User: Which sequence fits this backbone?
């Protein structure tokens, strides 16, 4: 990395601090990304140097006023000193403003660089069932960004100047320097102790508040069921229990925080008065001038200010550190995809080779050693009792089930090798639980890509929903939140079907596509599947209802995650009916 290149003398020692810095910025994808901000942070360090040097201006000005101007009574000296001081204050203010602006720019740039990568990693984590990780990811990025570009950064750049200010105090009087060292050590110890004492109450309060919020939100999502069956009193009692626990935890956390704050205020006020008293004693004994006494009091406050900032940012630092570690793990576990295949033309032939599918916390696989081949242009209905693995197989066919062994080959290649962003336009998927997204009906059908009106209308006509959409006041431009309340379960399912077949995909997987359909909707579905079959598309559909299997070329029957029958439709039907006939 060019920005971290070191001279030979420094690189000769592997344990040199600069070598450790290089190792830190090379250890992960996240730190390598942050290394790109080193030039900006170096500039901030330079301006911090100027700011902290000029922080000595008030001390020097007081020394000159009390020890020179007040004695000489020279007005010209006073004017010149005041003008020089004002100029230095202007330079200091300008430097403060510049480093603040640089931090703002770093925050914007950091978000621009990292947020797309973190978003994709969080999406992949959610796809693999790690919902708690995906929920935290963007919040963790915000936590790291806010700490790196807020008061925590200023404290980091200002803290090295505390020893320098204490050294200046020692030059004024060794006793004042000793007092400054004692109070600095006291404040650092107080910060460490407060972190230790407050950690458990804060964690308990946060967890209790989270449990209360989750419970309330889950019940609000099912308010109609609760109201219809009179469940509100019982659920309210359960919520009150969690609410009281959250209040108790928050009360304990507040009590500990107030206690620590009171102790901190006591020592801070004591420091100001004791330094002034010690300076007065030194003046009485003739070891210090009045100007030096007043200047020392100001300098003492400046010396301990970075420690105060660190104490104020202490909790934020640990939160940012934990967020940083979680982000590192997230990006390491879900690296950027590389070397993926980009389809130009796709033959939707599918083959399963010893496919297993598992779920977290479950020892027995959901799918066991599935081997089958599905030619391009075929329609396959997947049958089986509830819990046999039909929906899991549907997701495996699309490569979106998180824990699999074996292979799902699409056009002769493992489906994980295809670039998902490019593969998406060749694939259509209707899930069992239909989810429509915030936007217009047209945008939902067009998968939030550029809306092609002709393709949108063609897809909705094929799904048998065109006339229904036209009855809305805004037609295809109707917001889905507004239209969703007017759409029945079957119409929502047909809208999702239109989205699945939009853009003429080659591979279509339909999971229980007729679960909410009436006879008219089922007829439209059969017509849609026949149209896809005539166009040479490969279609998979899972179903419990026998009416739809008439459009299938082949049937695959799953029982307890294993293929019991697979073959042409009529042969499988005869095989299923044979035991009943024999009985």
Assistant:
């Amino acid at each position: 990395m060019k920005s971290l290149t070191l001279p030979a003398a420094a690189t000769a020692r592997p344990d040199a601090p600069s070598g450790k810095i290089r190792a830190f910025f090379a250890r992960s994808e996240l730190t390598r990304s942050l290394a790109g901000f080193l030039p900006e942070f170096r500039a901030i360090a330079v301006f911090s140097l100027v700011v902290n040097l000029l922080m000595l201006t008030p001390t020097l000005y007081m020394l000159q006023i009390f020890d020179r101007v007040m004695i000489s009574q020279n007005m010209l000296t006073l004017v010149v000193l005041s003008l020089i001081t004002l100029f230095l204050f202007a330079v200091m203010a300008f430097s403060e403003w510049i480093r603040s602006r640089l931090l703002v720019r770093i925050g914007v740039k950091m978000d621009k660089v990292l947020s797309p990568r973190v978003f994709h990693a969080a999406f992949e984590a959610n796809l693999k069932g790690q919902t708690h990780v995906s929920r935290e990811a963007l919040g963790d990025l915000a936590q790291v960004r806010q700490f790196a570009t807020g008061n925590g950064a200023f404290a980091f750049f200002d803290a090295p100047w505390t020893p320098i200010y204490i050294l200046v105090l020692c030059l004024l009087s060794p006793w004042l320097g000793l007092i400054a060292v004692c109070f600095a050590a006291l404040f650092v110890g107080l910060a460490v102790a407060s972190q230790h004492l407050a950690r458990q109450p804060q964690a308990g309060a946060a967890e209790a508040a989270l449990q209360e919020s989750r419970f309330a939100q889950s019940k609000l999502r099912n308010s109609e069921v609760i109201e219809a069956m009179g469940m509100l009193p019982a659920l309210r009692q359960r919520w009150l229990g969690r609410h009281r626990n959250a209040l108790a935890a928050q009360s304990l956390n507040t009590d500990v925080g107030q206690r620590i704050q009171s102790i901190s205020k006591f020592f801070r006020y004591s420091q100001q008065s004791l330094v002034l008293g010690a300076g007065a004693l030194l003046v009485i004994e003739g070891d210090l001038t009045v100007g030096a006494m007043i200047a020392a009091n100001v300098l003492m406050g400046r010396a301990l200010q970075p420690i105060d900032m660190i104490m104020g940012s202490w909790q934020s630092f640990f939160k940012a550190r934990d967020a940083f570690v979680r982000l590192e793990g997230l990006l390491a576990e879900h690296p950027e995809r590389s070397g993926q295949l980009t389809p130009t033309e796709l033959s939707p032939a599918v083959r399963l080779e010893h496919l297993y599918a598992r779920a977290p916390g479950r020892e027995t696989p959901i799918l066991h050693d599935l081997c089958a081949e599905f030619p391009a242009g075929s329609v396959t209905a997947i049958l089986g009792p509830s819990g046999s693995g039909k929906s899991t197989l549907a997701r495996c066919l699309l490569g979106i089930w998180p824990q699999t062994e074996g292979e799902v080959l699409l056009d002769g290649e493992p489906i994980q090798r295809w670039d998902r962003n490019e593969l998406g336009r060749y694939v259509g998927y209707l899930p069992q639980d239909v989810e429509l997204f915030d936007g217009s009906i047209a945008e939902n059908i067009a998968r939030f890509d550029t809306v092609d009106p002709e393709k949108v209308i063609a897809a909705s006509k094929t799904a048998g929903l065109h006339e229904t959409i036209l009855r809305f006041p805004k037609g295809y431009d109707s917001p889905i939140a507004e239209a969703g309340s007017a759409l029945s379960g079957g119409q929502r399912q047909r809208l999702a079907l239109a989205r699945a077949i939009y853009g003429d995909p080659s591979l279509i997987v339909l999971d229980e596509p007729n679960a909410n359909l009436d006879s008219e909707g089922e007829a439209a579905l059969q017509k849609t599947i026949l149209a896809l079959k005539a166009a040479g598309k490969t279609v998979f559909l899972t179903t419990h209802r026998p009416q739809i299997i008439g459009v299938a070329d082949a049937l695959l029957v799953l029982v307890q995650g294993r293929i019991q029958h697979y073959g042409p439709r009529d042969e499988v039907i005869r095989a299923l009916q044979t035991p009943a006939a024999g009985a």
User: Anything to note?
Assistant: Residues 506 and 537 are 5 Å apart (CA to CA). The longest helix spans residues 75-127. Residues 1-17 have pLDDT under 50 and may be disordered. The radius of gyration is 35 Å.
